[in-house]
Amino acid sequence: MQKRIVVIGAGFAGMWSALAAARLLDQHDVSCDEIEVVMIAPEPMLVVRPRLYEDVPGKMAVPLLGLLDATGIRFVAGTVDRIDTVAREVGIVSPSGESRVTLSYDGLVLASGSRLVRPDIPGLLEHTFSIDQIEEAVELDEHLHGLVQQQKSDTRNTVVVAGGGFTGIEIAAELPSRLRRILGADANVRVIVVEKAADIGPDLGPGPRPVIETALSELGVECRLGVSAARFDAQGVVLSNGERIDAQTVVWTAGVRASNLTQQLLAERDRLGRLLVEDDLRVPTLANVFATGDTACAATDDEGHTTMMSCQHALEMGRFAGNNVAASLLGQPTLPYRQTRYGTGLDLGPWGAVHTAGWDRQIIMQGAESKARKQWINSIYIYPPLADRTAAFEAADPLGKRGGK
Fold first, then answer.
1. How far apart are CA 208 and CA 396, in angstroms?
2. CB atoms within 10 A of CB 224
3. Is 93 exposed, middle or buried (0-12, 13-18, 19+ CB in 10 A)?
4. Are 216 and 245 in contact (CB under 8 A)?
5. Residue 314: phi, psi to the nearest 5?
6. Model-level pTM greater than 0.90?
7. Which tens digits make up the pLDDT trace of 336-365?
8. Which of 2, 226, 256, 267 is the S-S candidate for 114 at Cβ 3.0 to 4.6 Å?
């Protein structure tokens, strides 16, 4: 009787999970008729989420069908809204929302990612944009291009970025040049970052902060620190200190949380909703269920560090989760996930970028050289492999050597 590995999600973690599972089955000469690998997602597309702060975000999605066909992975279009670990099945809603099916599994990988947190702040849902998902980034891009049709004013030319973390800094650094390309080189644009912490980039620590501060200052980006957004309306935002900023555009970037599907599993979660997984990314107490990417909190080393909701961890976690779910069905030993190297690459718009190494985030590169490396990572390194079975399986090896690992 045919067995089935189901991978929920087509992001970085989901794509590499499916490829790594198919790779291990291929190594053991197990055909698709014996154990099939199925990926479930709304579309067979990899959204290059780390690039959604850039111009023309609608192009930041890569088709996956050719790659999946080449590696024997079956794609099912739809959204999983139910996981039954007792019956070992998932419920899938069709892309149109008009029908649903149930699919059984023998091994499951949860790679459904994360979503932007939108707290109950008056006007937030009605009057803010985001770049969390590709359709949201496209909506913002269309809005920005539509500003040129509006009457010139300081309000039209002002953008507020709510949240001064990694995403907030990258979109804020990019916006002045994007706005001038749209509104004219001489437009008096203002970009203002609002961050409730006392420092910009609080989660990035003090290491890269001087570079971030210098870059934002030279780009003309203003910062309001130690305050938060109290309410939004169609013409701007009122801060917690009572200050009002008139702006036609407000971008919300403050925080993400794991997919709600993690709530359906009887397992322990962290404050971000991520499942606390074992060393091989298995969800404790659940047979043949693994979590990866933004849905999992895993140890990266033996020194107490755990994964971040980041592309660099999702890429590797996916390879290990996929390998291990296949190994569990084959009766083979699983591999402990470890990713001891950690670094950050923060894009700072036309100013350049800054790269750090280690959990203390010591600067190793900045400016134009760092920008070139960031562009290579964003446009080459994180992209899917070619639709070639041999090359894809080689790239999916969890123990393979890669340049940013």
1. 32
2. 21
3. middle
4. no
5. -60, -40
6. yes
7. 999 999 999 999 999 999 999 999 999 999
8. 256
